[in-house]
Amino acid sequence: MERFVENLIYTSRWLLAPIYLGLSLGLLALGIKFFQEVFHLLPHVIEMTENDMVLMLLSMIDMTLVGGLLVMVMLSGYENFVSKLDLDEHREKLSWLGKMDSGSLKNKVAASIVAISSIHLLRIFMDARNVPDNKLLWYVIIHLTFVLSAFVMGYLDSMSRKDKDKTLI
User: Fold this and answer.
1) Which of 4, 117, 123, 136 is the most exposed place for a label (fewest CB within 10 A)?
2) How many domains does the chain have?
3) Which mean pLDDT values do the consecutive 10-residue runs of the chain (169 residues) have?
């Protein structure tokens, strides 16, 4: 009975596979939105102000960072929690694939969130004259919360890695 329950629990990890597949659909939706913005931008590029152009480009960079985050979570999460990716030898393999455990994935996600938040905050600062001061303050506080959280997570991860290294010696 115990072996059956353990096998059932272990096999249940495959319930995550459709979730990672769903993230790929989210990546597709993000790509559609990205190119919608490109097609919206192109006819107006001559008449746009420099500030509006920078804001649009920052928005596109933001979407690109989110897309990269989705790919990282999809592939690393699948490899860490479901099954190793069995890629053909002739196929190009991402350098970080198979090397990112759940702890480093968590730190990469936190760093990506900080980068995305930074781009968003920069967009808001570029249009600061149209943003009320109290909202601007909240944007900064929220961003600093992301930065502090990422720093603390990274620090705790490095502390736990040092402790693991000490026990190996």
Assistant:
1) 4
2) 1
3) 93 93 95 93 89 85 90 90 81 77 82 88 84 88 93 85 65
